[in-house]
Amino acid sequence: MAALLIATQFAKAQTEKGNQTLGLNFQFQRSTNTSSYIDPVSNAFSVQDQKFTNFYIGPIYSYFIADNLDLGASAQYGSTRSTIGALAGEQKQVNEGFSGTVFLRKYFMYQNKFGLRAGPYAFYGHSKSDFTQSNNSVYDQKTTGNSYGGGINAELLFYPSKQLGVSLSLANLNYTHSDSKNNNGATGKSSGDSFNASFINSGLGLSVFYTIGH
Q1: pLDDT score, position 181
Q2: CATH number of 3-34+45-210
Q3: Cα angle vertex 78, ends 14, 200, to 5°?
Q4: Do the Cβ atoms of 22 and 212 come closer than 8 Å?
Q5: Which of 21, 38, 84, 107 is the most exposed place for a label (fewest CB within 10 A)?
């Protein structure tokens, strides 16, 4: 499902040295799905209703250390909720987390209307997760985790006016290391590394921002 990202930014101008941007990022995503399931042992047939909701919000700030080059940071709070309803009972999982990101972005503009911005970023995050099953609490589980990593992000830019800008997520490549533990004691600890790549054809990330400046 496409995700919509709205950012409102305030700046002296667009991409000149010495300018600053201050904004707010917001994303919301919701999806529902109904699937059928046949137990391979009992041959019992059941229907599952799945609901998924994801959103995040946080401030973002950057400073243009040179023309068409800004250095910035952002903070973010996010929440993901998923529900699976079936004959065996309803399962719910709620994830919440905080993260911080620092980034460097290079701007390539054409006539101050069209362009591309891309660059590296690094992040750190802390999260917690609660899993519950309505008809059997023995499967309930609480998990906390920490993660860090970095990557490269690229966005297409379009300025329909000097103050109003739109960016479209083009590609994102990143590496993440994560450590987590749950309430199962020593056996509930785990860690892992992952590499992820997302492109415009795997989901839409749209940013609309407003600038105030010269």
Answers
A1: 86
A2: 2.40.160
A3: 55
A4: no
A5: 38
Q: What tokens were used for 86?
A: 């079936």
Render 42-109 in DSSP notation, one character per residue.
T--EEEEEEEEEEEEEEEEEEEEEETTEEEEEEEEEEEEEEEEE-TT--EEEEEEEEEEEEEEEEEEE
Residue among 21, 49, 23 at smallest CA distance from 34: 49
Looking at residue 128, its amino acid is K
Q: What is the pLDDT of residues 18-47, one digit of tens each?
A: 888 777 777 776 767 666 666 666 666 666
> 3-state class of 148 per DSSP?
strand
| Domain residue spans of the chain | 3-34+45-210
Contacts of 53 (CB under 8 A, 6+ apart): 29, 30, 79, 80, 81, 82
According to DSSP, residue 168 is labeled E
* pTM for the whole structure: 0.73
